[in-house]
Amino acid sequence: MLTLVCCIAGLSPVCGQQPVAFNPLESFKQVMYPAGNALRTVNGKPGSQYWQNRADYQISADFDTLSRQLKATQEVSYFNNSPDALSELWFLLGQNRFRKDSRTTMLTPLNGSRFGIMEFTDGFVLEKVMIKNNKDGTWSKVDYKIMNDQLKVILPEDLNTKAKLSIRIDYHFILPKNGSDFMGVLPTVNGTIYQFASWFPRILVYDDIEGWNTSNSGYYIEPGKLKYKITVPSECIVQGTGQLLNPEQVLTKIQLERLHAAKKSDQTVQIRTAKEAGMSSSRPGPGRLTWHFSADNAGDGLFVVSKSFIWDAVKVDMPNKEVVMAMSLYPVESNYDTWKQSAQTMKKVLESYSKLWSPYPFETSVNVAGPVTGIGGPGVSFIHYKSDGMANGVWSKINHELGHSWFNMMIAGNGRQAWMVEGLNSFINHVNGEVLEGETAFLMADAVDWLGKAKPGQSVATPYELMIDKNFALLAYMKPAVALNLLRTQVLGKKRFDDAFRTFVQAWKFKHPVPADFFRCMEKETGENLSWFWQSWFLNDWSLDQSIENVKYVNEQPEKGIDIKLVNKGKMVMPLVLEIIEFNGQVNRVSLPAEVWQKGTEWTFHYPSTTAVISVKLDPDRALPDTDLGNNIWRGNASQKKVPAGMTAQTVLDRYFAAIGGKALVLKLKSAVLKYTRGEGKMLYTLEQTASFPDQYSFILDFAPLAQPLQKYTVNGENVNYQKFGAPEELNAKQSLQVKLMCRLFPELEMNTGKHQLRLADSTRNLSGTDVYVLFANENHAAGRAYYYDVKTGLKVKEEDLMHLDPDLPYTSMEMAEYKLLDGLMLPYTLIFKRAGENETLLKGKEFKLTMN
Ligand SMILES: [Zn+2]
Predict the structure, then answer these.
(1) Ligand 1 centre and the CA of 476: distance in Å?
(2) What CATH number does domain 649-852 carry, 3.30.420.10, 2.160.10.10, 2.50.20.10, 1.10.540.10?
(3) pLDDT, tens digit, for every residue of 207-233?
(4) Cα 404 to middle of ligand 1, angstroms
């Protein structure tokens, strides 16, 4: 049916044939930005007429811990800076999502979802909605309508441009225990933790793009002043967005002293210790206390109430010599050894972001352990109380959630383009990881893996509400972060990128940029047309496959240089780096801009070699997400040399045994356990090879998130077993033999037993600059394998399956490198697995154990 449609309508260039994927007119198509104007300039900055409205809040709330009811009065002063007269005001009623009849409830899948509704309340119950008479200061009722989770206040007369009005709303609601991972309730041994988000009717953004942003408005805030008071039982501690204005009224004398000390201290000061957390003497009492907070440029707020907290604080130095406070609150149920470091981690993270991009915009930063997995609001983050360890737990979560104070609390973009919130934040998280921990942002092999998992048809720019769940993490967080990282390191260079990015941050501080503003600002500041980059990474679902088509000597004379022909096979384009190794030992690199692809799918360039060329390699550092590495390398004939006379298969084996410590020592081996890993934490990938000589072996691949080993092969004499995810799988005779050969630790021990037919290739080969002898082995005339031994050292550098390997086996070739001595034996500490058409998997030796007879 589809073919028919395509033939008749002629939609495809050549029906029935694969169309050429790459088309320069498509990949370099100019991104059409809206015309620049006095609001948003052609340079991607706010113009002279830029405006945004402003809402300042004053809220007084009383929280009853027993009923979980928050009862509040809120007064909003709203300033209309728009050129339009407004006949209504719109508020977001975040709590209404918990109503049984809400749209979010109806959109929650049967088996639930992280942000779905799992528990019903009555939402916000509005007691009074009133408007202030600007002339006499009296309050009178005003008409309003509630639509799903939005409140439309119908003004008695238009609010003119440059005019201001005040609306008062009295309301109450019950805090849901399970608050769709934004808020919630957690009982602990020293008291319950109540985490509040979406706790007041929040004004929606009225902007020059959409007017009132009434759709998917949860992640779009209007920075303004937030002043609030929370009254709770005196034994509770309250912390939230903004500065605590009345510490002397709500803290004990000793806590007050400690708080003052923390303001001057680079060491963490405990305002309340673990021991004190359970003691009523550590709180002023009895009765109820009111906590006052105030924050500028907040526009939203989070707070928390609990008796249970341990409370740490430390000073944070800003580049402008100012000082802010980092505070961490957690219950005794959190891992103390990890969480006692969290205030220092916050300090480090805040100081780094401040130095890199712009000073932290609030007076305090509060991190709270509780039931919520992880959210970042203005000056407050909620992190799951069981988050643990530094690799994937508290460190990376603090790094991420605190980053939200920049994106999108400071750079208040519309979260409907989720990348402007999560993607820009994930990007600065990566840079911080590199600056603070020396972490590589990510391995390109992993990035290719992630990107490949995104369901096609959706791009980074797909609006949030349309993104399928599976794509959300990939397209809103990872892909834009990978993209900006590459823009920074591979396209523009760090300094140039950072200057432009900083300019964008400065220009849009507490304002509302749109994607075009970001794209334009990055282009104008660097003087580049980056349409191809936005097309490749943000606006489409394309992948990268740049390749070396062929390499030719000019007039077939190496000394006249070579012409290298490149072909672009994917729609994505990126700059190119090539590494050329010559016979004379020279290794040189050539960089080409992405623009070589502007005119066509092929590009040929000249390289002035003076001797024969051993190899040309594209993307030698594996810095780009190229999906087919197989066509990234070209090897010349110069890499082959005749094997010297007298050298035989047996000599190669003898040299190998001598190099690793002697055959006698290998024969003394009773058992061996070799453990290799890559990644860590949740991404930990392990290979465990065991041997109980002479004929029992296992080869187990494990991936941390899985309960059962990914793949487990065991060999016991002639018996071969295979389990996948813990379930046994059938193997045919050929597969069994392949598994057997793969599992052996020292196949050389059997290579001269007569079972093998050995043949030494008559010339050497060159593997990435190393000359090797190649030994072909056929066992039972069935499964052919090749073994490669370093001509210089005698060590084995590679093993390869020459038959069509069963698709389930983990590699077609395995490279060994970085030999180290253990108990007199040389063992490879680096393994690189490779399967045809797939990416390399690099494993590092972690734990080796040998037992000798
Ligand atoms: Zn986030």
Answers:
(1) 9
(2) 2.50.20.10
(3) 999 999 998 667 899 999 999 999 999
(4) 7
